[in-house]
Amino acid sequence: KAGVTQTPRYLIKTRGQQVTLSCSPISGHRSVSWYQQTPGQGLQFLFEYFSETQRNKGNFPGRFSGRQFSNSRSEMNVSTLELGDSALYLCASSWTSGSNNEQFFGPGTRLTVL
Amino acid sequence: GENVEQHPSTLSVQEGDSAVIKCTYSDSASNYFPWYKQELGKRPQLIIDIRSNVGEKKDQRIAVTLNKTAKHFSLHITETQPEDSAVYFCAHKDPYNFNKFYFGSGTKLNVKP
Predict the structure, then answer these.
(1) Which residues have a Cβ under 8 Å from the Cβ of B83 and sit 6 or more positions away?
(2) Cβ–Cβ of A100/B105 closer than 8 Å?
(3) In A14-113, where do the E strands start and end?
(4) CA distance readout (Å), A54 to A33, A70, B62
(5) Mind listing the pLDDT tens digit for each residue in B31-41?
(6) pLDDT tens string A97-111
(7) CB-nearest partner of B105 from A41, A90, A94
(8) What SS3 class is residue B15?
(9) To probe the interface with A, which of B99, B101, B103 has the most A CB atoms within 10 Å?
(10) Percent of chain A at pLDDT exceeding 90
(11) Would you give the end-to-end CA distance of chain B in angstroms?
């Protein structure tokens, strides 16, 4: 079974631009979560989608948004990019929600904001 | 219930020694605690997890202990090997929300041959 995939793997943008990242979960997984990883900060939870609905949201500004499609693929969008948005963005999928199921991470998208 | 304190931030051990990483959480209702290993340039991978109904779990050289009273849990790696070198993250699941996890800031483990 193919693992979680993310595209693109690397991205360079300038301040003020917007960006869209994509995540394809493991086949059959319906829950997709997004995390921001920065040095020394660990992984910060952005949001989680299940059956095309955002069910959880972390403490990030409204510039960060996402969506999920009927095939469970998910996208996240960051508008009006700031230098501090430079990070590794990871998505993770799991079989179902509502239980303590293992999350499988993708390789991440490395975003650099200049 | 978001706070997860993880210590130490870096840990250097000699091959064959043991390594211990500790995490503290704040919400006593938390009931699921996974540990992830992230090698350089790779994705985090689950290495072991523990639920609140047990106090210890072992898997070969790796063990996790949970003290619910003190609200802390620890990762123990015995007989460390150079391939154990990586960043380790503890996490706990938000007890009030589906699939919402809070992560520690990570421990960079270096195993010297």
Answers:
(1) B111
(2) no
(3) 19-24, 31-38, 42-50, 53-57, 64-68, 74-78, 87-94, 104-105, 109-113
(4) 10, 13, 35
(5) 899 999 999 99
(6) 555 568 999 999 999
(7) A41
(8) coil
(9) B99
(10) 83
(11) 39
